[in-house]
UniProtKB/TrEMBL annotation:
UniProt keyword list: Isomerase
GO terms under biological process: carbohydrate metabolic process
GO terms, molecular function: carbohydrate binding; glucose-6-phosphate 1-epimerase activity
PANTHER family membership: APOSPORY-ASSOCIATED PROTEIN C-RELATED (PTHR11122), GLUCOSE-6-PHOSPHATE 1-EPIMERASE (PTHR11122:SF13)
Top-rank taxon: Bacteria
Enzyme class, spelled out: isomerase
Catalytic activity: alpha-D-glucose 6-phosphate = beta-D-glucose 6-phosphate
Family the entry assigns: Belongs to the glucose-6-phosphate 1-epimerase family.
Protein name per the record: Putative glucose-6-phosphate 1-epimerase
Gene3D superfamilies linked to this entry: 2.70.98.10
Length: 298
């Protein structure tokens, strides 16, 4: 659909459409409680700003906005696998973030609350061969609080093993000054070394003073980012996920990534709701799994 047709079908006072960076179509929401922008490429939330607040999500100024490439920042959807593919010819974090999603529904009937649903099916995937039939549905609730829910269905007649993530990039004033609570006493895999190795048990709050790439295991708990620079705490709750990833690439890795500014690691941290490692999900034929994340400013 072109912009005019989208506006006619889904538009409202609080919902408009534009051609954003890379000529990707985006949905713009401004409902009094918050402003948001969702790109159909990847069903990618690029902006969430509750009224009067500093942007909650971080976006790289060096991001690609190209077909079959991921957007750097916001909320990439990693699916049907998290991290590197078993086959090195396939893209990291799966094809969901590389694909053009369909707008399925927008409900703006409630004041200060906008619900947006997007879907993806095998016919929409051009980046890679589709490994099995599936249905994905991504729902955003944009209000004072942000809720994001990914529903995945295995439409094949065999069992499928899925790993996935809502790979949320948070905007912080200075990564070196934040503390992250909620994972004290939780064991983690350390992925900085490249391989999956047991990293230890978290002792107290997390501070970022080097590259951090950890999969915290067996945890469904909420995490809080305490940001003294912006004088706020971001509460990150999740459901359908028993592993949490904390990621900051720090200096060397930032410089090595072409779609990530050399100094941008200072202003971001990822707290990801994940199904990975021992929390991978085995979906029987016809089965569904739901993973979600809820973001509240305190
Ligand atoms: O560069 P990508 O594919 O978007 O991945 C970014 C990061 O995503 C994180 O989730 C991984 O734990 C990191 O290892 C990875 O570097």
């Amino acid at each position: 659909m072109n912009l005019e047709e989208l506006q006619k079908t889904f538009g409202a006072d609080t919902v408009t459409f534009r051609k954003g960076p890379g000529e990707f179509t985006t949905v713009i929401i401004d409902n009094g409680a918050a402003e948001a922008e969702i790109c159909l490429h990847g069903a990618h939330l690029m902006k969430f700003v509750p009224a009067g607040a500093v942007p909650v999500l971080w976006m790289s100024k060096s991001s690609w906005f190209e077909p079959n490439r991921p957007i750097r920042g916001g909320v990439p959807i990693c699916w049907p696998y998290f991290g590197a593919a078993a086959d090195p010819a396939l893209p990291a974090h799966g094809f969901a973030r590389l694909s053009e999603w369909n707008l399925a529904e927008i409900d703006s009937s409630e004041k200060g609350m906008t619900r947006v649903a997007l879907t993806l099916s095998p016919a929409d995937v051009t980046a890679v061969p589709v490994p099995f039939p599936f249905e994905l549905r991504m729902e955003f609730v944009i209000g004072k609080v942000l809720q994001m829910t990914l529903t995945m269905k295995n439409c094949s007649d065999s069992e499928q093993i899925i790993t996935d993530a809502l790979h949320t990039y948070f905007n912080v004033k200075s990564a070196g000054a934040i503390t992250i609570s909620g994972l004290d006493g939780v064991s983690y895999e350390d992925r900085v070394v490249g391989a999956k190795v047991f990293g230890g048990v978290q002792d107290g709050d997390i501070r970022i003073d080097r590259e951090v790439d950890r999969v915290y295991l067996d945890t469904a708990d909420a995490v809080e980012i305490h940001d003294p620079g912006y004088d706020r705490t971001i509460l990150v709750e999740k459901f359908g996920s028993e592993s949490t990833v904390v990621w900051n690439p720090w200096i060397r890795k930032s410089q090595a990534m072409p779609d990530f500014g050399d100094d941008e690691y200072h202003t971001m941290v990822c707290i990801e709701a994940v199904n990975a490692a021992k929390d991978r999900r085995i979906l029987a034929p016809g089965a569904t799994h739901v993973i979600s994340q809820k973001i509240t400013l305190k």
